[in-house]
User: What shape does this take?
Amino acid sequence: MSKKVTISVAVLAYSRLETLKKLISSLKKQTRLPDEIIVVFQGDDEKIWTWLLLQEGITLYRQRNLGSAGGFSKCIQYSIKNNHDWTWILDDDAIPEESALEELIDNRYFKENILGFISSRIIKPSGVSYMSPVPADANIWYNTVLDDSCVEVVRATWLGLLVSSRAVKKIGLPLEEYFLWDEDLEYTARIVKSFKCYCAINSVITHYQNDKFDPFLAGDGVKYNYWVRNRVCTILMSDSTVLSKILRISKWTNRCVIKVIKKEAPVKSLLYLLVGILFFRPKVKFI
Assistant: This one.
């Protein structure tokens, strides 16, 4: 008898209690129930922690704020430690449709066990798709989506990412040092180098993000600063040629300088850019 494939859902919770309640409820109503619901809480709101402690059917962990990079890295590690073959990653402001998990695994790619990851399609509350994984070549796009409603992709965000434990053991964990921004794109692009990866367009997650809130420039632009540093580090650690790296870094530097001149980004971001070019080289850690 073949071993049953086990899937955990790993939720990174921070500050959004009302959507977290809806998320947990949705997970418990999935047409293919997860084998374990893991919640990693890294906020400081005791009201949220108290509510989580009262919930049945979830496994709880609490830790200091490690950003999305460190938080999702821990989510994956806890899932693998608990012997799951797959980890479905969600944030606390994203609500999956009740068939979302079943749609991710009800396709030939999952059954053939050739996947590094397969991801959901992300929509706004208005129904508009956005933040969804980046598709590969257009010809591949047409060939796959018409056949099985899946699109081969080259990068994806954390939301709705169903990642294989086998892939994690081979390519390593997310770079926790990135803290925020670009860590999901770096990590999924790393998986794509060794595995086929897809988006299942019928697996839908609604992301309740405030469209009027600018995540880059809030809080003195700290998230933007991390983005500037992380992006240049990703370029330097890529498999591109030296010439390609120089050209891409030059283009990125020019963009960053112009945004500062236009007062669309903090001056401090140029320091982060310099750190990314000269000093910031996190090492991939493995399970």
Observations:
- Strands lie at 7-13, 36-41, 59-62, 86-91, 94-96, 115-123, 134-135, 150-155, 161-164, 196-207.
